[in-house]
Amino acid sequence: MSEPIFDRLALIGLGLIGSSIAHAARRGGLAREIVGYARSSETRETAARLGFLDRVADSAAEAATDADCVILCIPVGSIGAVTAQIADAMKPGAILTDVGSVKGSVIAQAAPHLPDSIQLIPAHPIAGTEQSGPEAGFAELFDGRWCILTPLPGNDADAVARLRAFWEGLGSDVASMDAAHHDRVLAVTSHVPHLIAYSIVGTASDLETVAESEVVKYSASGFRDFTRIAASDPTMWRDVFLHNKEATLEVLGRVTEDLFALQRAIRWGDGDALFERFTETRAIRRGIVEAGQDTDRPNFGREKPPRA
Amino acid sequence: MSEPIFDRLALIGLGLIGSSIAHAARRGGLAREIVGYARSSETRETAARLGFLDRVADSAAEAATDADCVILCIPVGSIGAVTAQIADAMKPGAILTDVGSVKGSVIAQAAPHLPDSIQLIPAHPIAGTEQSGPEAGFAELFDGRWCILTPLPGNDADAVARLRAFWEGLGSDVASMDAAHHDRVLAVTSHVPHLIAYSIVGTASDLETVAESEVVKYSASGFRDFTRIAASDPTMWRDVFLHNKEATLEVLGRVTEDLFALQRAIRWGDGDALFERFTETRAIRRGIVEAGQDTDRPNFGREKPPRA
Lengths: 308, 308
Fold this sequence. Notes:
Two copies of one chain form a homodimer.
Chain A: E1 6-12, H1 16-28, E2 31-37, H2 41-50, E3 55-56, H3 60-64, E4 69-72, H4 79-86, E5 95-98, H5 104-110, E6 119-120, E7 123-125, E8 146-149, H6 157-169, E9 173-176, H7 179-204, H8 212-217, H9 223-229, H10 234-243, H11 245-267, H12 271-290
Parallel strand pairs in A: 1-2, 1-4, 2-3, 4-5, 5-6, 8-9
Antiparallel strand pairs in A: 7-8
Helix pairs in contact in A: 4-5, 7-9, 7-11
């Protein structure tokens, strides 16, 4: 095992992502000491019991003290408040980073609280599951998944290189782009898909002519695919939409425009328009499988539940 | 192995569903002889090579001759034309059934061509993958999956019981409902989800500010879940929408209405409304997992592609 990248790593927020970072950093020997804090005492106790940290701190500021790198693994709506709590405790030259799905707002919230000596380098691992909490984390979560860094113009090149090496050590492939572009890309690949999944799953349970029990029973015909991401953490997703408003609304506008075009094709019986559209989309799926971003096994290779 | 349910079973259409029925019927010993026909000579040759039929016929009428049960495994838009081709060849008392995702239109297309002596009993197995063609079929496709029968008021009870036993023999659990209700249920659980998946996948590949390559690269953040069903057979899905127009448009209207409400909540920063909606949808996912209709493993238990 090579030298640790950080002497002390601090994780603030110990849900799926925070706990997975702890597991993966340990696996890779990336830090001499991993300190963690979560707002909920229940989460702190669970983390202590599971033992994926070297030490559980009693406050965010305590966790950040003397850390070489502090990772905020919290909903994006809390970035400003937590940064304010830890800014004074952080040592000069330390890295402050995060894992949020929105980057522009993270910068806008955190930067005003930070002295120039702190390296704010936002990051976003494109990894997760529909499960939440410290017990959902596992060391392999980031293996072969992208992590996007959105460094700031004033960042120290050395600090950026260390954070990149850290994410590679967690198992990720690392990409860089500016925060505004990140937020547009994620609006397309993540935020609007989640919003639509929440919408269709919510609507389906709220119809007069079809019972919710029937929707559940016959969900294997397509619907169940949407329910996975519609089961994601509600607080995290509320914050994503509130903090990536413009890009989300813009992409959503395009999707509904397109949906109206398809609706019109159905109403007027324009089979050619439907066929053409349904053919194009197959190529995207192939591209995703070829890029190693999804399995090519039918139905995601999901197992059938055992027969009753 | 018990007695076969049918002496001769005829499959017209040898794609994913037709070939899977052949495999599963053989596994269960459900027919003494399985005859099949597909319009494309390439498909017929593939079926002959794979050997899942006892005999490949040269026409739909030849396949249907002397069959105790004929299953149309073709896009719903072709039901009328194919029924017209085989009606005269079918023997009195035989069952004519299908596997289409729409039932009202199947009845409207098929019934006018049939003498009273033929038992038209529409059926719809809630099973499939995103793959198509005779090589995609496998014997386990229907195991533990629902099959919905939509019998007609004039059906012979014995014929319905035999078809039910046949689907149970293929591995399915069998439910019954009327065709109009089936079409409303499937509009919710299948047709509108597919349309929305096609729409969002199509839109994402057609934006000015985000490259298609980026959408592919970062698709694991949610988008890739939609691409699976958006890779389904284009002809089949064109026909579904053209033949279940009213129910699809009605459910689609509800979903877009709801989507506009969420859009408004985002625009006005109404976090409580978003949180409440995102919490409700988790219960549906739990219900689906508890009903044995999906795996509870994170990310559908999909395997990661091997590292490059």
